[in-house]
Design a protein that fits this description.
Blueprint lengths: L2 H8 L17 E2 L4 E10 L9 E6 L5 E7 L4 E7 L7 E4 L23 E6 L5 E7 L3 H4 L5 E7 L8 E10 L15 H5 L7 E4 L5 E5 L4 E8 L6 E5 L3 E7 L2 E7 L4 E4 L4 E7 L7 E8 L2 E10 L30 E9 L7 E4 L2 E4 H6 L4 E3 L2 E2 L7 E3 L3 E9 L5 E5 L4 E3 L6 E2 L1 E4 L4 E8 L3 E7 L2 H5 L3 E6 L1
Parallel strand pairs: 1-4, 2-5, 4-9, 10-13, 12-20, 21-27, 22-25, 26-34
Antiparallel strand pairs: 2-3, 5-7, 6-8, 8-9, 10-11, 13-18, 14-17, 14-19, 15-16, 15-18, 19-20, 21-24, 22-23, 27-32, 28-31, 28-33, 29-30, 29-32, 33-34
This protein binds CU-O-CU linkage and copper (II) ion.
The site of copper (II) ion has 5 residues, from loops.
Length: 463
């Protein structure tokens, strides 16, 4: 397949036909010392790809290595910056010490080219998380600076395979290079963000994963794309959701095998593989009613067992899920404004009231409560232990994945789950409730990274 056809076959269509059996699924770091090096380099999405795509990656791997650390114990992770620009790492979804949150200018200094930084992480909760750049993420994340972080339960449910599917999309041009012309494009920022034209699972296009009939698989799904909301279909009838955004839930059947993840969101599935030996069972991305294969389960010739396992699939509770919310909250209204056709006329940016033209000149086209970008003053400042209700109203027609740093919340629409990222579709409203129990300065932003860059970011302080 030549380059042109490869792009054609994959552009938007995301179709299969490219098999990558020789390439490993992902690299894993399971033992300290944990060391990440961020660097530029070349990467091939497919073995048959002629010239490598210029990317930025951790440890020369797309996505970065899966890091597995224990729950409740300190892990040290060192980052060396070999990029030609400053960077930082944010540990998405972890309720850790504020100083380790990885937000330049707020919780740490930028890590300059050639410099290193040592993160010390003691995660209270087990589960599926991820790490990613928090500097110029609209560029650095689009170039690949993200990886999966697993906090291991001391006693996880029994499984045959513990698989990670980190799902990403990429906007490539005809020569398989990341399309730079559209980087920082305000049109994309004001619409749905930077949506790619190929979708990868663990950095590969429609790769095969070997399974056997009767096997029980824990499948950790993560949407690590800049902006694409992913609706996925898993074609195995015995599939349950066991965790959402890292936190255990009471297991429930995945109806129709369909699950939607906004950028930043995760979900762990427990799948009992029931197809016949030799069968191929695709995992698909649903787009406008069409299904596109993004990965495949290939059933071995020999079954693993004749009947499915009967041990429990529920995860042990986390400290985060043991929190009991009070009845009374301090209400913080948060209105989500701007974007294309959003009729925003003005907003305050860097302390100055600006009309829409001036905002556009500053690449600010989104606002929270009339404020674009990070203000000097927090959205709210509360004493540790205050119960907060973020009363969110999406006043525009675009979807947003709103992420709160350092805390998990209950979304009124899904009162059984503790999340760290909530999807709001057009004009949608909901309250996110949580106890502000982690001292420090924490961001709230849209995880459609171009929306964040375009102004949809604020912060709060817990003292
Ligand atoms: Cu995953 Cu501030 O982000
Ligand atoms: Cu958004």
């Amino acid at each position: 397949m030549n380059r042109r056809n490869f792009i054609k076959a994959t552009a938007y269509g995301l179709s299969g036909g490219v098999y990558l059996k020789s390439l490993p699924a992902y690299s894993t770091l399971t033992r300290p010392p944990f060391h990440l090096t961020a660097s530029p380099g070349g990467y091939k999405f497919a073995a048959k790809q002629e010239s490598a795509t210029r990317v930025m990656f951790y440890n020369q791997s797309i996505p970065g290595p899966v890091i597995r650390i224990p729950q409740g114990k300190e892990s040290i992770i060192e980052l060396s910056n070999q990029l030609d620009q400053p960077t930082s790492i944010h540990w998405h979804g972890l309720r850790i010490e504020n100083a380790m949150d990885g937000v330049p200018g707020m919780t740490q200094e930028l890590i300059q080219p050639g410099a290193s930084y040592t993160y010390s992480i003691t995660p209270p909760d087990a589960g599926t998380y991820w790490y990613h750049t928090h500097q110029r993420a609209w560029e650095q994340l689009a170039f690949g600076l993200a990886g999966v972080l697993i906090v291991e339960e001391e006693q996880p449910p029994l499984v045959d395979q513990d698989l990670v599917f980190a799902i990403d999309d990429w906007k490539l041009n005809k020569s398989m290079q990341i399309d730079k012309n559209s980087l920082g494009n305000l049109h994309e920022w004001a619409h749905g963000g930077r949506i790619g034209n190929i979708v990868t699972v663990n950095g590969k296009i429609n790769k095969e994963y070997s399974v056997a009939r009767g096997e029980r698989i824990r499948l950790r799904l993560l949407n690590i794309a800049n902006a694409r909301v992913m609706t996925l279909r898993v074609n195995q009838p015995d599939t349950s959701i066991i965790s959402i955004d890292g936190q255990p839930v009471k297991p429930f059947r995945l109806s129709n095998g369909i699950i939607t993840l906004a950028p930043g969101q995760r979900s762990d599935l427990m799948i009992d593989m029931t197809s016949e030996p030799g069968h191929i069972s695709p995992v698909e991305l649903m787009l406008n009613g069409q299904a596109y294969e993004v990965a495949q389960f290939k059933f071995n010739a020999a079954p693993k067992r004749e009947r499915i396992m009967d041990s429990g699939i529920a995860l042990p509770a986390n400290p985060a899920t043991n929190v009991v919310l009070p009845k009374e909250f301090q209400h913080i209204p948060l209105s989500v404004e701007g974007g294309a056709m959003g009729r925003m006329k003005s907003a305050t940016y860097q302390g100055k009231e600006m009309g829409i033209n001036e905002l556009v000149q500053n690449k600010q086209i989104w606002a929270f409560n009339g404020v674009a970008g990070l203000a000097n003053k927090p959205l709210f400042k509360v004493k540790r232990g205050t119960a907060i209700s973020l009363d969110i109203e999406n006043k525009n027609s675009w979807p947003h994945g709103l992420h709160v740093h350092g805390h998990h919340f209950i979304d009124d629409r899904q009162p059984d789950f503790w999340r760290d990222t909530a999807l709001f579709t057009r004009q949608e409203k909901s309250s996110l409730t949580f106890v502000a129990d982690n001292p420090g300065k924490w961001l709230i932003h849209c995880h459609m990274i171009e929306h964040q860059a375009g102004g949809m970011v604020t912060w709060f302080e817990v003292i």
